[in-house]
Design goal:
CATH topology: paralog of FGE (formylglycine-generating enzyme)
Largest sheet: 4 strands, antiparallel
Strand order of the largest sheet: 1-4-12-7
Strand content: 15-25%
Bound molecules: calcium ion
Order of helices and strands: HEEEEHEEHEHHHEEEEEH
Number of helices: 7
Helix content: 10-25%
Length: 336
Protein backbone atom coordinates (compact mmCIF):
# COMPACT_ATOMS: atom_id res chain seq x y z
CA UNK A 1 0.00 0.00 0.00
CA UNK A 2 1.38 3.39 -0.93
CA UNK A 3 2.15 6.05 1.65
CA UNK A 4 -0.66 8.24 0.30
CA UNK A 5 -3.18 5.42 0.51
CA UNK A 6 -2.21 4.73 4.11
CA UNK A 7 -2.70 8.40 5.01
CA UNK A 8 -6.07 8.42 3.26
CA UNK A 9 -7.14 5.27 5.12
CA UNK A 10 -6.26 6.78 8.49
CA UNK A 11 -8.04 10.07 7.76
CA UNK A 12 -11.07 8.29 6.39
CA UNK A 13 -11.49 5.94 9.33
CA UNK A 14 -10.92 8.71 11.86
CA UNK A 15 -13.77 10.69 10.42
CA UNK A 16 -16.12 7.84 9.68
CA UNK A 17 -16.09 5.83 12.89
CA UNK A 18 -15.64 8.44 15.58
CA UNK A 19 -17.54 11.64 16.19
CA UNK A 20 -14.49 13.51 17.38
CA UNK A 21 -14.54 17.02 18.75
CA UNK A 22 -11.31 18.97 18.99
CA UNK A 23 -10.81 20.53 22.41
CA UNK A 24 -12.67 17.90 24.43
CA UNK A 25 -11.09 15.41 26.80
CA UNK A 26 -12.17 12.66 29.16
CA UNK A 27 -10.94 12.51 32.74
CA UNK A 28 -10.39 8.81 33.39
CA UNK A 29 -12.24 7.27 36.35
CA UNK A 30 -9.53 7.02 39.01
CA UNK A 31 -8.96 4.91 42.12
CA UNK A 32 -7.14 6.20 45.20
CA UNK A 33 -4.26 3.85 45.97
CA UNK A 34 -3.16 4.15 49.60
CA UNK A 35 0.49 4.33 50.64
CA UNK A 36 1.93 1.01 51.73
CA UNK A 37 4.65 -1.55 51.27
CA UNK A 38 5.14 -3.71 48.22
CA UNK A 39 6.68 -7.10 48.80
CA UNK A 40 8.20 -7.10 45.33
CA UNK A 41 9.21 -10.41 43.83
CA UNK A 42 12.86 -10.15 42.84
CA UNK A 43 13.29 -11.10 39.20
CA UNK A 44 16.51 -11.25 37.22
CA UNK A 45 15.03 -12.07 33.84
CA UNK A 46 11.97 -11.44 31.71
CA UNK A 47 9.49 -14.21 32.37
CA UNK A 48 6.47 -15.09 30.32
CA UNK A 49 3.99 -17.91 30.56
CA UNK A 50 1.72 -19.34 33.19
CA UNK A 51 2.32 -18.05 36.70
CA UNK A 52 3.81 -20.77 38.89
CA UNK A 53 4.19 -20.59 42.64
CA UNK A 54 7.88 -20.58 43.54
CA UNK A 55 8.60 -21.40 47.20
CA UNK A 56 12.21 -20.23 46.75
CA UNK A 57 11.22 -16.81 45.37
CA UNK A 58 12.95 -13.90 47.08
CA UNK A 59 11.29 -10.60 47.84
CA UNK A 60 12.30 -7.04 48.59
CA UNK A 61 10.13 -4.53 50.40
CA UNK A 62 9.54 -1.18 48.70
CA UNK A 63 7.80 1.80 50.30
CA UNK A 64 5.12 3.12 47.94
CA UNK A 65 3.62 6.58 48.33
CA UNK A 66 -0.08 7.15 47.84
CA UNK A 67 -1.03 7.75 44.23
CA UNK A 68 -4.01 7.31 41.95
CA UNK A 69 -4.48 4.88 39.08
CA UNK A 70 -7.14 4.73 36.41
CA UNK A 71 -9.80 2.14 37.06
CA UNK A 72 -9.59 0.98 33.45
CA UNK A 73 -7.11 0.70 30.63
CA UNK A 74 -7.30 3.81 28.41
CA UNK A 75 -9.92 3.24 25.73
CA UNK A 76 -9.91 3.97 22.04
CA UNK A 77 -12.64 6.53 22.70
CA UNK A 78 -10.42 8.55 25.03
CA UNK A 79 -7.41 8.35 22.74
CA UNK A 80 -9.52 9.60 19.82
CA UNK A 81 -10.07 12.96 21.54
CA UNK A 82 -6.30 13.39 21.74
CA UNK A 83 -5.90 12.70 18.04
CA UNK A 84 -8.74 15.11 17.18
CA UNK A 85 -7.20 17.87 19.26
CA UNK A 86 -3.59 17.61 18.12
CA UNK A 87 -1.47 17.07 15.05
CA UNK A 88 -0.05 13.93 16.60
CA UNK A 89 0.77 11.31 13.99
CA UNK A 90 0.14 7.88 15.51
CA UNK A 91 1.56 4.71 13.96
CA UNK A 92 -0.09 3.48 10.75
CA UNK A 93 1.01 -0.14 11.03
CA UNK A 94 1.25 -2.65 13.85
CA UNK A 95 1.81 -6.30 14.69
CA UNK A 96 -1.48 -8.15 14.20
CA UNK A 97 -2.42 -11.80 14.20
CA UNK A 98 -2.32 -13.69 10.97
CA UNK A 99 -2.11 -17.25 9.83
CA UNK A 100 1.62 -16.76 10.11
CA UNK A 101 1.31 -15.87 13.81
CA UNK A 102 1.81 -12.07 14.05
CA UNK A 103 2.68 -9.94 11.03
CA UNK A 104 3.47 -6.23 10.88
CA UNK A 105 0.99 -4.60 8.55
CA UNK A 106 -1.28 -1.57 8.02
CA UNK A 107 -3.39 -0.75 11.05
CA UNK A 108 -3.96 2.13 13.42
CA UNK A 109 -5.36 3.03 16.84
CA UNK A 110 -8.87 3.29 15.33
CA UNK A 111 -8.72 0.56 12.74
CA UNK A 112 -7.08 -2.81 13.23
CA UNK A 113 -8.20 -6.36 12.93
CA UNK A 114 -9.55 -6.93 16.45
CA UNK A 115 -11.14 -3.58 17.24
CA UNK A 116 -14.93 -3.83 17.50
CA UNK A 117 -15.78 -1.20 20.13
CA UNK A 118 -14.37 2.21 21.01
CA UNK A 119 -14.66 1.10 24.65
CA UNK A 120 -11.95 -1.47 24.14
CA UNK A 121 -8.43 -0.46 25.22
CA UNK A 122 -6.45 1.52 22.69
CA UNK A 123 -3.68 -0.53 21.09
CA UNK A 124 -1.78 -0.40 17.81
CA UNK A 125 0.12 2.50 19.37
CA UNK A 126 3.63 2.64 20.81
CA UNK A 127 5.12 3.84 24.11
CA UNK A 128 5.77 7.28 22.64
CA UNK A 129 2.08 7.67 21.74
CA UNK A 130 1.04 6.62 25.26
CA UNK A 131 3.43 9.21 26.72
CA UNK A 132 2.15 11.88 24.32
CA UNK A 133 -1.44 11.12 25.32
CA UNK A 134 -0.70 11.37 29.04
CA UNK A 135 1.19 14.65 28.62
CA UNK A 136 -1.65 16.09 26.50
CA UNK A 137 -4.27 15.08 29.07
CA UNK A 138 -2.18 16.53 31.88
CA UNK A 139 -1.87 19.83 30.04
CA UNK A 140 -5.58 19.93 29.24
CA UNK A 141 -6.69 19.23 32.79
CA UNK A 142 -3.86 20.70 34.85
CA UNK A 143 -3.74 17.37 36.70
CA UNK A 144 -0.44 15.55 37.24
CA UNK A 145 -1.29 12.56 35.05
CA UNK A 146 1.53 10.25 33.98
CA UNK A 147 2.25 6.60 33.30
CA UNK A 148 2.73 4.47 36.43
CA UNK A 149 6.11 3.11 37.45
CA UNK A 150 6.71 -0.63 37.45
CA UNK A 151 6.73 -0.70 41.25
CA UNK A 152 3.48 1.25 41.50
CA UNK A 153 1.90 -1.03 38.93
CA UNK A 154 2.87 -4.21 40.81
CA UNK A 155 1.72 -2.75 44.13
CA UNK A 156 -1.63 -1.75 42.62
CA UNK A 157 -2.05 -5.11 40.89
CA UNK A 158 -1.39 -7.09 44.09
CA UNK A 159 -3.79 -4.88 46.05
CA UNK A 160 -2.55 -6.44 49.27
CA UNK A 161 -2.90 -10.03 48.06
CA UNK A 162 -0.06 -12.51 48.58
CA UNK A 163 -1.48 -15.20 46.33
CA UNK A 164 -0.49 -15.77 42.70
CA UNK A 165 -3.53 -13.84 41.49
CA UNK A 166 -5.65 -11.37 43.41
CA UNK A 167 -8.45 -13.96 43.59
CA UNK A 168 -6.22 -16.77 44.88
CA UNK A 169 -3.91 -19.37 43.35
CA UNK A 170 -6.27 -21.16 40.98
CA UNK A 171 -5.73 -20.18 37.32
CA UNK A 172 -8.95 -21.96 36.36
CA UNK A 173 -10.91 -19.22 38.20
CA UNK A 174 -9.45 -16.60 35.88
CA UNK A 175 -12.47 -16.26 33.61
CA UNK A 176 -14.46 -14.47 36.33
CA UNK A 177 -11.72 -11.91 36.80
CA UNK A 178 -9.84 -11.46 33.58
CA UNK A 179 -9.87 -11.69 29.82
CA UNK A 180 -7.11 -14.18 29.09
CA UNK A 181 -6.33 -16.95 26.59
CA UNK A 182 -9.25 -19.20 27.36
CA UNK A 183 -11.61 -21.49 25.48
CA UNK A 184 -13.20 -18.46 23.75
CA UNK A 185 -9.76 -17.37 22.50
CA UNK A 186 -9.02 -20.86 21.29
CA UNK A 187 -12.34 -21.02 19.40
CA UNK A 188 -11.89 -17.55 17.89
CA UNK A 189 -8.46 -18.35 16.54
CA UNK A 190 -9.57 -21.67 15.11
CA UNK A 191 -12.49 -19.86 13.44
CA UNK A 192 -10.58 -16.83 12.16
CA UNK A 193 -7.08 -18.16 11.43
CA UNK A 194 -7.16 -21.44 9.69
CA UNK A 195 -4.12 -23.40 10.75
CA UNK A 196 -3.37 -21.62 14.03
CA UNK A 197 -4.08 -23.91 16.94
CA UNK A 198 -4.56 -23.38 20.63
CA UNK A 199 -0.97 -24.38 21.34
CA UNK A 200 0.03 -21.10 19.74
CA UNK A 201 -1.57 -19.19 22.57
CA UNK A 202 0.66 -18.89 25.60
CA UNK A 203 -1.29 -21.33 27.76
CA UNK A 204 -5.01 -21.73 27.28
CA UNK A 205 -6.92 -21.84 30.57
CA UNK A 206 -9.78 -24.39 30.75
CA UNK A 207 -12.58 -21.89 31.34
CA UNK A 208 -14.63 -19.50 29.17
CA UNK A 209 -14.44 -15.69 29.56
CA UNK A 210 -16.43 -15.25 26.34
CA UNK A 211 -13.88 -12.86 24.81
CA UNK A 212 -11.80 -14.21 21.97
CA UNK A 213 -9.70 -11.06 21.64
CA UNK A 214 -9.55 -7.77 23.61
CA UNK A 215 -12.78 -6.87 25.40
CA UNK A 216 -14.55 -3.71 26.51
CA UNK A 217 -12.72 -2.47 29.62
CA UNK A 218 -14.07 -3.31 33.08
CA UNK A 219 -16.12 -6.40 32.22
CA UNK A 220 -14.67 -8.71 34.83
CA UNK A 221 -14.39 -8.55 38.62
CA UNK A 222 -11.93 -5.95 39.94
CA UNK A 223 -9.12 -6.46 42.43
CA UNK A 224 -9.29 -5.36 46.06
CA UNK A 225 -8.38 -1.78 45.14
CA UNK A 226 -11.23 -1.63 42.63
CA UNK A 227 -8.98 -1.79 39.57
CA UNK A 228 -10.13 -3.70 36.51
CA UNK A 229 -8.14 -5.77 34.01
CA UNK A 230 -4.91 -5.70 36.03
CA UNK A 231 -4.53 -9.24 34.74
CA UNK A 232 -5.04 -9.78 31.01
CA UNK A 233 -6.98 -7.88 28.35
CA UNK A 234 -3.96 -5.85 27.23
CA UNK A 235 -0.42 -5.53 28.60
CA UNK A 236 0.31 -2.08 30.04
CA UNK A 237 3.22 0.29 29.43
CA UNK A 238 5.04 1.79 32.41
CA UNK A 239 7.46 4.70 32.73
CA UNK A 240 10.45 2.50 33.46
CA UNK A 241 13.33 2.06 31.06
CA UNK A 242 14.29 -1.51 30.22
CA UNK A 243 16.11 -3.68 32.72
CA UNK A 244 16.17 -7.46 32.96
CA UNK A 245 15.96 -7.28 36.75
CA UNK A 246 13.41 -5.87 39.17
CA UNK A 247 13.33 -4.07 41.56
CA UNK A 248 17.11 -3.63 41.50
CA UNK A 249 18.35 -0.90 43.82
CA UNK A 250 14.92 0.73 44.17
CA UNK A 251 13.56 1.26 47.67
CA UNK A 252 10.36 3.09 46.72
CA UNK A 253 7.93 3.48 43.82
CA UNK A 254 10.11 5.74 41.67
CA UNK A 255 10.43 4.79 38.01
CA UNK A 256 13.80 3.74 36.57
CA UNK A 257 14.54 6.57 34.12
CA UNK A 258 18.13 5.68 33.23
CA UNK A 259 19.86 2.87 31.38
CA UNK A 260 18.33 1.31 28.28
CA UNK A 261 15.56 3.79 27.46
CA UNK A 262 15.27 2.61 23.87
CA UNK A 263 12.96 0.05 25.44
CA UNK A 264 10.40 0.41 28.19
CA UNK A 265 8.80 -2.09 30.49
CA UNK A 266 5.25 -3.28 30.28
CA UNK A 267 3.41 -5.15 32.96
CA UNK A 268 1.33 -8.30 32.86
CA UNK A 269 -0.11 -10.21 29.95
CA UNK A 270 -3.02 -9.89 27.59
CA UNK A 271 -6.00 -11.72 26.09
CA UNK A 272 -3.36 -13.63 24.20
CA UNK A 273 -1.86 -15.45 27.17
CA UNK A 274 -2.53 -17.34 30.39
CA UNK A 275 -3.13 -15.30 33.56
CA UNK A 276 0.09 -13.82 34.91
CA UNK A 277 0.97 -12.95 38.47
CA UNK A 278 1.57 -9.31 39.41
CA UNK A 279 5.34 -9.61 38.94
CA UNK A 280 5.02 -10.54 35.26
CA UNK A 281 6.87 -8.03 33.07
CA UNK A 282 8.28 -7.52 29.61
CA UNK A 283 10.30 -5.03 27.53
CA UNK A 284 9.21 -3.38 24.30
CA UNK A 285 11.15 -1.06 22.01
CA UNK A 286 9.72 2.48 21.95
CA UNK A 287 9.00 2.25 18.25
CA UNK A 288 7.36 -1.19 18.50
CA UNK A 289 3.62 -1.26 17.83
CA UNK A 290 1.23 -4.11 18.48
CA UNK A 291 -2.32 -5.07 19.32
CA UNK A 292 -1.44 -6.57 22.71
CA UNK A 293 -0.04 -3.44 24.39
CA UNK A 294 -1.77 -0.36 25.77
CA UNK A 295 -1.69 1.61 29.02
CA UNK A 296 -3.50 3.09 31.98
CA UNK A 297 -2.97 6.40 33.72
CA UNK A 298 -1.43 7.24 37.09
CA UNK A 299 -1.78 10.53 38.93
CA UNK A 300 0.35 12.03 41.67
CA UNK A 301 -1.45 12.92 44.85
CA UNK A 302 -0.59 16.59 45.22
CA UNK A 303 -2.40 19.80 46.01
CA UNK A 304 -3.14 20.00 42.27
CA UNK A 305 -4.59 16.51 41.93
CA UNK A 306 -8.29 16.05 42.07
CA UNK A 307 -8.67 13.86 45.15
CA UNK A 308 -11.96 12.02 45.10
CA UNK A 309 -13.08 12.50 41.51
CA UNK A 310 -16.76 12.25 42.46
CA UNK A 311 -16.40 15.60 44.21
CA UNK A 312 -15.07 17.30 41.14
CA UNK A 313 -16.90 18.89 38.28
CA UNK A 314 -16.66 16.56 35.33
CA UNK A 315 -16.47 17.70 31.74
CA UNK A 316 -19.44 17.03 29.51
CA UNK A 317 -17.34 14.55 27.53
CA UNK A 318 -16.38 12.74 30.76
CA UNK A 319 -19.98 12.39 31.90
CA UNK A 320 -21.02 11.15 28.47
CA UNK A 321 -18.10 8.70 28.44
CA UNK A 322 -19.08 7.23 31.81
CA UNK A 323 -22.69 6.75 30.67
CA UNK A 324 -21.75 5.19 27.37
CA UNK A 325 -19.07 2.96 28.86
CA UNK A 326 -21.61 1.63 31.37
CA UNK A 327 -23.94 0.81 28.49
CA UNK A 328 -21.17 -0.86 26.52
CA UNK A 329 -20.20 -2.94 29.57
CA UNK A 330 -23.81 -3.91 30.16
CA UNK A 331 -24.26 -4.99 26.54
CA UNK A 332 -21.01 -6.96 26.57
CA UNK A 333 -21.81 -8.65 29.92
CA UNK A 334 -25.06 -10.00 28.51
CA UNK A 335 -22.94 -12.07 26.20
CA UNK A 336 -20.78 -13.40 29.04
CA1 LIG B 1 -10.41 -14.43 26.51
CA1 LIG C 1 -4.41 -5.22 31.51
Amino acid sequence: MSHLKIIFLVLFTSQSIYALAAGEWIDPPMVDIPAGQLKAKITTEIKKGTAVSDPDAKYKTLNINAFRLSKYEVTTKEFGLFIADTNYQPPTACHQMSEKWFTFRAGSWDKHQHLRSEYEPVTCINWDAAQAYVKWLSKKTGKPYRLPSEAEWEYAARAGSTTLYYWGDDAAQACRYANIADQAAEAAVKRDYNGLESKDFIGVVPCDDNSGYASVVGLYEPNQFGLYDMIGNISEFTLDCFDLGFPGSATDGSPRLGGDCGRHMFRNGSWHGAPQDASSRGGWYVESVGTLEGFRIAEDVTSKSSGNSSNNRKTKATRKFERELAKAQQAARKKI
